[in-house]
UniProtKB/TrEMBL annotation:
CDD domains: Cadherin_repeat (cd11304). Gene3D superfamilies: Cadherins. The keyword Magnesium does not apply. Residues 105-201, 202-309, 310-417, 429-526, 527-630, 631-736, 759-848 form the Cadherin domain. GO terms for cellular component: plasma membrane. It is found in: Cell membrane. InterPro entries: Cadherin-like_dom, Cadherin-like_sf, Cadherin_CS, Cadherin_N, Protocadherin/Cadherin-CA. GO terms for biological process: cell adhesion; establishment or maintenance of cell polarity. This is Cadherin domain-containing protein. Signal peptide: none annotated. It is a single-pass type I membrane protein. It comes from Batillaria attramentaria. The keyword Calcium applies. GO terms for molecular function: calcium ion binding.
């Protein structure tokens, strides 16, 4: 793998999500004066040069990831990379509560990053961390002012025990409540020491027994003093022995806990067996503070030797999943004295961190160092443990050693999430005005595992309103992903899921609540568009008129509504600001004024406030002495017969009552008697609705009475008449009355008949009205080559040109009868026309036997000679029947397409003696015709214009009558 060229002043490492989107980031140049690299925050644009990671075709994606990570770790460890804080504040300890430290907005020059408008929306909050010192400070959420906490003083010795430098790291999130601005600021609070603690010995006095035969110079350990203060001036600086001219002296190493009493002269038990000296421990303060240890020395032959560890220091390695009680190692110390003075006991030094004391234990007798806590959750890779050994003499000697314990990563631990909600309420808040990308929480995730087990990825699942966005290494921002509306969803529960990249991934999750802060984005809304009330004249002042109400969907002060009157009320009314109850503040006379209008204003308490107004109409009521009056006596309306139930009929009925209040409130209803059985109903507002189906052909006109009544006591009323005409719709087909339905018309026409002479008349009617009931006749299908036509309006069938012997034949005409509605309704009939030679020419039946009619109407068989016709009278129409003939028998062919006639006779057929033979299923005619029918063997009724033909045929007809 070859890397892009770079110089020695830069350090590069690879961040590889996968093989396709790996990137090399060139960091800021290293400072010349330090081994650490300086990373401005935020990095300037010129420091963010990004180039693609070099491809590695021979390695799969996981290998590339491992190489990149190894390169990263090597780079960081080899260069001792540390990230400097954005701000460092140095303060002395013991500051009083709420002492100002600094202002983050000013000290980070935020005005260079955000506009003046956005500056006012910034919110400042501490980010949670593993070691949190946030309780020691107070951060103003709105201004960014940093101060000491409200309670207690900041004691450096309590916060940073045993530490030379007391630097308290803090992380502050600065976010906008409306837009996407978010910045994390790292703070170091350097707490400097003041000389408020004198050096102190663990005990006030001690006893040492020294043999008179001790060699000079010999030394014996003393318990050293401890000064909680630090620094070259305030910490322990020197020891002094008082008196200084005796056989003893003091030996100590600056910065070391080793303090020893030195024997400078030979001792003689017989000369002096006891001594008392004072050891003064003094710091370097001005003035210096000191502590005193009284040492009582007995010259004898006891406990001459101190315990000595076999090793100057020890080291051990422990697995992170080691169980409580697991033995790390055993420290060993020996004492050359005999008896109790030579018996050694072990303990952990109390002058070390509580984390060590809670994580490990040492066996008093054996010196075995064991695990006492949960190392996996200790979050440390190395521990320095101070173990002390003491003999059991009356005045014991004590020595110490150091054990270095390294924790080995052996198991895949689940990630640990730290959620900073950017508020101190246990939940996050965000304005409903917040733009997309606005930050609601900060997520820090840590996984102490190494390799794949320590690679963590986080996400938010199944939530439309919020999403997770990477911010820094193992840090995320929870951002707004969808527009918020407090009035729709006031709270959201957001769950962040994190999982490592182990073979069997371990997961962790954290759920927090986001409360949407209300903005004054809703105006108050009155419950009614207008308030109309009435009061009787001469009402007493202070009478309650009406209570107006307005609702505001916002919360808090944004939704708190107060009421006031517009100046147009002219002081004649008063309103309660909190309840909206309106009362009179004047007298009212109906004869002087009938009503009074004024405006009520509802205003919320938002900043800026929003308002709404409503009109209040107050009617002054009078006695009920005028009845309602309809606008007219008769209300004519029309409605289509096809209108469905529920259709409104015409315009609303109106009736006026010039009185006020209930006396002038009119309701309209139908007279129950006159509307009974009619498909209409009248609503109180005067609207008429159809309640059933209409049929123009059945009933085309309705009327009923309506009553207008006021609500006075007693009520007065007026009446009017409603007339409703039903409009016809083209909902009926024409009815062909001749030829009747199921009949076939056969016309016999002589070739001698005149042009345009009617040979038949079709009859049809339509129960609809107007154009819907006007019928027209149209030939739609024919085989006569235009020899005949039909009058479109009258239905007369006539000859269109002179006929010759060549025209003698049988023809079929299909006649369409339709109305003129839109769309038109149709009906059809078929005519069969038989053109014969005429002029008395006899046509033998054999000439026309088995003549076939086109159109599938059936075969017509004619034979024999037709007889004469008789006349009968039925009503106003003439019906004709055969008075004599050889035979005219009708045989049904089955079906309604037509019939076949079989005329059986031995006589010749005289076509001029009959115009046509129309088949019919019934015999109609006069009494005489019925009698004639009985005289003949068979009879065919000829209906309507049954004899139509040549002049000679008409004469024959008259003669026959």
């Amino acid at each position: 793998m070859s890397w892009p060229a770079h110089d020695d002043s830069t350090q590069r490492f690879c961040l590889c999500a996968d093989a396709d989107d790996a990137e090399v980031i060139e960091w800021w140049p290293r400072r010349a004066t330090t081994t650490a690299m300086d990373f401005p925050s935020p990095l300037p644009q010129q420091a963010r040069r990004v180039t693609p990671c070099p491809p590695s075709p021979r390695r799969p994606a996981p290998s590339l990831i491992c190489i990149c990570l190894a390169f990263l770790m090597t780079s960081l460890i080899g260069s001792q990379v540390t990230l400097a804080a954005d701000l460092v504040y140095t303060i002395p300890e013991e500051l009083p509560p709420l002492e100002h430290i600094g202002n983050l907005a000013q000290d980070t020059d935020l005005n260079q990053y955000v506009s003046a408008d956005s500056f006012t929306t910034l919110r400042y909050s501490f980010l949670a961390g593993e070691t949190s010192f946030t309780s020691l400070f107070r951060l103003d959420e709105a201004t960014g002012d940093l101060a000491t906490a409200a309670t207690g003083r900041l004691d450096r010795e309590s916060v940073c025990p045993f530490l030379k430098d007391c630097v308290l790291p803090l992380q502050v999130a600065i976010q906008s409540t409306l837009n996407q601005f978010f910045r994390k600021v790292s703070l170091d609070i350097n707490v400097t020491d003041i000389n408020d603690n004198p050096p102190a010995f663990p005990v006030n006095s001690t006893v040492i027994v020294i043999s008179e035969s001790v060699q000079v110079p010999s030394s014996f350990p003393l318990t050293s003093a401890l000064d909680k203060d630090t620094g070259p001036d305030n910490s322990l600086k020197e020891y002094q022995l008082v008196p200084a001219d005796g056989p003893f002296g003091i030996s100590f190493t600056p910065g070391s806990p080793n303090l020893r009493l030195v024997v400078r002269e030979e001792l003689d038990h017989e000369s002096q067996s006891r001594y008392q000296v004072q050891v003064l421990a003094r710091d370097g303060g001005r003035p210096p503070l000191q502590g005193v240890l009284v040492v009582n020395i007995t010259v004898g032959d006891e406990n001459d030797n101190e315990p000595k560890f076999t090793e100057a220091s020890y080291s051990a390695i422990v697995d992170e999943d080691a169980a409580v009680g697991h033995v790390l190692l055993a420290v060993t110390a020996t004492d050359r004295d005999g008896g109790p003075n030579g018996q050694v006991r072990y303990r952990l030094s109390s002058q070390q961190s509580q984390n060590v004391l809670s994580m490990f234990a040492v066996d008093e007798a054996t010196g075995q160092l064991t695990v006492a806590g949960d190392i996996e959750n200790g979050d440390q890779e190395h521990y320095e443990i101070v173990v002390e050994a003491s003999d059991m003499g009356a005045q014991p000697f004590t020595t110490s050693t150091t054990v270095t314990v390294t924790v080995r990563d052996t198991i895949n631990s689940a990630p640990k999430l730290t959620v900073s909600l950017l508020t101190g309420n246990g939940y996050s808040t965000i304005s409903e005005y917040a733009s997309l990308g606005a930050v609601v929480a900060h997520i820090a995730v840590k996984d102490g595992d190494r390799g794949r087990n320590g690679i963590v990825q986080c996400e938010i699942r199944h939530h439309d309103y919020f999403d997770l966005q990477g911010f820094d290494v193992n840090e995320y921002k929870v951002i707004v992903a969808k527009a918020l509306n407090r009035e729709t969803v006031p709270t959201h529960n957001v769950t962040v899921f994190c999982s490592d990249a182990g073979v069997r991934p371990l997961t962790a999750s954290a759920t927090f609540e986001v409360r949407v802060l209300d903005e004054n984005d809703n105006s108050p809304q009155f419950l009614l568009p207008e308030y109309t009330v009435s009061i009787p004249e001469n009402s007493m002042e202070g009478r309650s008129v009406v209570r107006v109400q307005a609702k505001d969907a916002d919360a808090g002060l944004n939704g708190k509504v107060r009421y006031s009157l517009h100046p147009d009320a002219r002081g004649r009314f008063l309103i309660a600001p909190e309840t909206g109850v309106i009362r009179t503040h004047d007298d009212f006379d109906y004869e002087r004024e009938k009503s009074f209008n004024f405006t009520v204003i509802a205003t919320d308490r938002g900043d800026p406030p929003r308002s709404d107004s409503v009109r209040v109409v107050v009617f002054i009521t009078d006695v009920n002495d005028q009845k309602p009056s309809f606008a007219r006596d008769v209300f004519p309306f029309t409605i289509s017969e096809s209108a469905p139930p529920g259709t409104r009929v015409g315009s609303r009925l109106t009736a006026n009552d010039f009185e006020t209040g209930l006396n002038g409130q009119v309701e309209i209803f139908a007279d129950r008697v006159s509307i009974r059985g009619k498909p209409f109903e009248v609503h109180p507002n005067g609207t008429i609705y159809l309640t059933g189906r209409l049929d123009y052909e059945s009933v085309n006109y309705y009327y009923f009475r309506v009553i207008a009544s006021d609500r006075g006591t007693p009520p007065l009323n007026d009446t009017a008449e409603v007339q409703i005409s039903v409009l016809d719709e083209n909902d009926n087909r024409p009815r062909i009355t001749f030829p009747a339905n199921g009949s076939e018309l056969v016309l016999f026409v002589s070739m001698d008949d005149d042009i345009a002479k009617p040979v038949a008349m079709l009859k049809a009617d339509d129960p609809d009205s107007g154009l819907n009931g006007q019928v027209q006749f149209i030939i739609t299908s024919r085989n006569d080559s235009g020899r005949f036509d039909v009058d479109a309006n009258s239905g007369e069938v006539f000859i269109t040109r002179s006929l010759t012997r060549n025209d003698v034949n049988t023809y079929r005409l299909q006649v369409l009868v339709q109305d003129t509605g839109s769309p038109p309704q149709p009906a059809e009939r078929t005519l069969t026309v038989w053109i014969h030679a005429g002029n008395g020419t006899r046509v033998k039946a054999d000439n026309i036997h088995n003549e076939s009619v086109d159109g599938g109407l059936g075969e017509k068989e004619y034979g024999g000679d037709f007889g004469t016709f008789g006349k009968g009278v039925a009503g106003e129409e003439e019906d004709f029947g055969f008075t004599s003939m050889g035979g005219c028998k009708m045989e049904g062919m089955g079906g309604s397409a037509g019939h076949s006639f079989n005329m059986s006779s031995s006589d010749d057929f005289k076509p001029h003696s009959v115009s046509r033979c129309l088949s019919h299923r019934s015999i109609v005619g006069s009494e005489n015709m019925q009698r004639k029918r009985r005289d003949i063997s068979e009879f065919i009724a000829i209906q309507h214009l049954s004899i139509v033909g040549s002049e000679n045929m008409q004469r024959k007809r008259r003669d026959s009558l």
